[in-house]
Amino acid sequence: MKKIRLVIGTMLMILMLAVSGASADTIVAGEVIQLYDSYGDSPGGAFSVYKNGVYQFETFCLEYNEYFYYGEPLTVAGVTKQAVSGGVGGSVNGADPLDSRTAYLYYNYRINQLSSIASGFLYSNSASATALQQAIWYIEQETTAPLSGLALTLYNAANSALTSNPSAVLTAYNNVAVLNLKHQNGTNSQDQLTMTSVPEPATMLLLGLGLIGLAGVRSRLKK
Questions:
Q1: Domain span holding position 60
Q2: CB–CB of 136/102 below 8 Å?
Q3: Please, are residues 136 and 106 in contact by the beta-carbon 8 Å criterion?
Q4: How many angstroms separate the CA atoms of 61 and 16, rounded?
Q5: pLDDT tens digit string along 22-63?
Q6: Number of domains in the chain
Q7: What span, in angstroms and rounded, lies between the C-alpha atoms of 58 and 60?
Q8: Cα diameter, the chain
């Protein structure tokens, strides 16, 4: 019984750490945001998202051939699972669906777990942010230039997860969305990634306590 509790307790701790510092973004359609330069080289992210002058989160863009100016007001036309217009990679009926591999990388970035699935990734590091943006653009077919170094490592990690950990990829896809952005004149801006929800720490705690309780019942039944 002690061994069972130790194992479940360890698993619970890992789950709690995985969601620490993560929270769902609160930006919805109709709101106005601003984007500012953050870590990484132009023309991609990372970008810092602000709403009403208050910092919200870090994001990356999906389209290579659209633009915005730092600090300009951008209207959120929608929060969807697709990039409007599709960018360089093309579109189907005017939109390019979000790739689950992109969602997987961004989700792990936002819950501070990307370095655990892609060796060498560093937070608050321009080279790492640039590599993540390159991997996202490659996945979304916005660029065709061969990847190398950390960008290739990130791409391979996302591809591998499709078969080695499909449930994690699905969780990521279910919790990541696209901010469809427009300039004030109504034209399309670069669409950005966002988090729609994450597991609540309290929910994870209840799950862990439930597992421990089940382990105790099983132990008593064996006796």
A1: 23-197
A2: yes
A3: yes
A4: 29
A5: 668 999 999 999 999 999 987 899 999 999 999 999 999 999
A6: 2
A7: 7
A8: 73
